[in-house]
UniProtKB/TrEMBL annotation:
One of its GO terms (cellular component) is plasma membrane. InterPro entries: ExbD. Keywords: Cell membrane, Membrane, Protein transport, Transmembrane, Transmembrane helix, Transport. It comes from Yoonia maritima. GO terms for biological process: protein transport. It is found in: Cell membrane. Pfam families: ExbD. Belongs to the ExbD/TolR family. It is a single-pass membrane protein; Single-pass type II membrane protein. The keyword rRNA processing does not apply. Its main location: membrane. This is Biopolymer transport protein ExbD.
Amino acid sequence: MKPRRRKAKGEPTIALINVVFLMLIFFLIAGTLAPPLDPELTLVNTADLDSAAPPEGLVINADGTLQADGQPIASAQDYYATHSAETVRVVPDQALPAKTLLQIGAALHEAGAETVLIATERSIQ
């Protein structure tokens, strides 16, 4: 008797092709969900815009000194006493140590501020 040859199993390429096809369909549909911008629309360019602190913001310089409305402020409690609001916007200098920022945020919370927002620079590059 001759030994039987085992039939080699085929590779499951059909399943792989189905998966790739489904992914292609998914990305085609997902890419068309958001309508494109009008081609005549020109977006605002803010590359050369000088940023300034919002008028109601507490500016914290790199050395930890505080300013509000262009005037120096002695402490975070003094700022909150004159600008009492539930939400306080803080504009820290980039070189300000995080420890100092956290201390000022805690002082604002102790003075009565419910929320302290930190303004940061947003860059799209």
